[in-house]
Amino acid sequence: MSEAVGPEAWWTVLVGITALLVAGACGVALWSAVPLASYVYFALAMAVLAALGAVWLILSLIGWFKFRAWRWSLIAPALVLVTCALVALSVPSRIAFMASKDSLAAEAQECSTSATDRRIGVYQVRRIESVEHGCLFFIEGGLINSIGLAYLPGGAPYLGVPRHDGDIGYQELDRDWYTFVQVF
């Protein structure tokens, strides 16, 4: 009668370390998607995930062919799939907005134009601009274009992508709140 032999300890440890590193990279990706906090961090997290994907593939193949073990190998891709789903559904951005909404609303009532960097809720606001019937909060993020949140109780002047340089395109977020992109 033969005993079932599991994978060797080195393989289990490497799979566990890979899963922990994947979890860390997924955490950075989720943080940088609030909204795109920093493209550099997001790109770095994606590069790390790509490298870890190669390590995961090698370890998974070794696990399957040498040890007939695959369950531990499923942790890393499960983390990546959950992260992709959360980002695709804008969960990090919505949580950040809900956590910051009261602070943003208080600032929007006053809406004094300011070019001073400051934190409002979870957002690093680079500048606040008063516009007709509302307030624009330019936040950290975006690669080339400016991005932000807009409080426009009368509605956005234009929904959709910006049409030309300097134009602002708005997307609905929550009632009187919109996200925007200003083309550079």
Describe this structure in a few short sentences.
The chain is built from four helices and six strands.
Q: Layout of SSEs?
A:
Blueprint: H1 9-32, H2 39-67, H3 75-88, H4 91-110, E1 118-120, E2 123-131, E3 134-139, E4 146-151, E5 168-174, E6 177-182
Antiparallel strand pairs: 1-2, 2-3, 3-4, 4-6, 5-6
Transmembrane segments: 9-33, 39-65, 72-91
Keywords: Membrane, Transmembrane, Transmembrane helix
Q: If you had to describe this structure to a student in words, what would you say it looks like?
A:
Keywords: Membrane, Transmembrane, Transmembrane helix. The structure is a single chain. The chain has four helices and six strands. By secondary structure, it is α+β, with helices and mostly antiparallel strands. The chain folds into two domains: 81 residues, no CATH class; 89 residues, no CATH class. Strand 2 and strand 3 form a beta hairpin. Helix 1 runs antiparallel to helix 2 and helix 1 runs parallel beside helix 3. It starts with 8 loop residues before the first helix and ends with a strand.
How many separate domains? 2
Strand content: 15-25%
Count of separate DSSP helical elements: 4
Please list the strands of the largest sheet in the order they lie side by side. Answer: 1-2-3-4-6-5
Question: Globular, elongated, flat, extended or rod-shaped: what is the shape?
Answer: elongated
Q: Overall pLDDT, averaged?
A: 91
- Secondary structure class reads alpha+beta
Q: What's the SSE pattern?
A: HHHHEEEEEE
Helical content class: 40-55%
Q: Uncertain spans, ≥5 residues at pLDDT below 50?
A: none
Q: Describe the sheet with the most strands.
A: 6 strands, antiparallel
Ends distance: 72 Å
Radius of gyration, in angstroms, nearest whole number: 22 Å
Number of strands: 6
